[in-house]
Specification:
The protein contains six helices and no strands. With 188 residues, it is mostly helical. The longest helix has 75 residues.
Length: 188
């Protein structure tokens, strides 16, 4: 109530001033009440929104656990693939080193010679050479020499017909013309 309303009720100025002093201590004005009421309504709205967000986060955290499991599985698969790749790369280096060594040793058939080599524990060193491979190849050259070209430097002559060479030992067939050679062959 305002001071005028209190005076209209028949109160004295002294009583009106005491009542108005009491307003500030024990009572809140309507504008302050409305402000506090609006603030409370806003706080309740925010509380509702936060509750919804928390529930959403709980749902997402459940799927996050699934995602974490998937990520861990993918990381394990990546490690397995990396290990497999390293193994394949080491095998390729070993194969290349063995093939090179057999080529240098003049193997006629690298695949056959490799099949006879014992390469269970073979591993390439820093230079890419297989440890103990040269000894194994030397043993194979002794035991299965037919797999390697001979080192004596002699070229073996293959028997059979040699074009342009005559059938006579004296070399007369080489001097004959083609027609004469046909006639001779046919016995004419």
């Amino acid at each position: 109530m305002t001071k005028e309303e209190l005076k209209a009720l028949g109160l004295t100025d002294e009583q009106v001033s005491k009542i108005t002093e009491d307003y500030g201590k024990n009572y809140v004005s309507k504008s302050q009440f409305n402000e506090k009421n609006e603030a409370l309504k806003n706080a309740e709205k925010e509380k509702g929104e936060l509750t919804k967000q928390i529930e959403g986060l709980k749902k997402n955290n459940d799927s996050n656990a699934d995602l974490k499991k998937q990520i861990e599985a993918m990381q394990e698969a990546a490690k397995a693939m990396e290990t497999e790749h390293a193994t394949q790369l080491a095998q390729m280096k070993l194969d290349a080193a063995v093939e090179h060594s057999l080529t240098v040793a003049k193997a006629k058939n690298i695949k056959a010679a490799r099949a006879l080599l014992d390469l269970k524990d073979a591993k390439p060193d820093e230079k890419g050479e297989v440890i103990g491979l040269s000894d194994k190849i030397k043993e194979l050259q002794k035991s299965d020499a037919y797999l390697f070209e001979s080192n004596d430097g002699q070229k073996k002559e293959v028997g059979g017909v040699h074009p342009g060479a005559g059938s006579d030992n004296n070399g007369t067939a080489a001097k004959l013309t083609v027609q004469q050679q046909f006639e001779r062959a046919l016995g004419i």
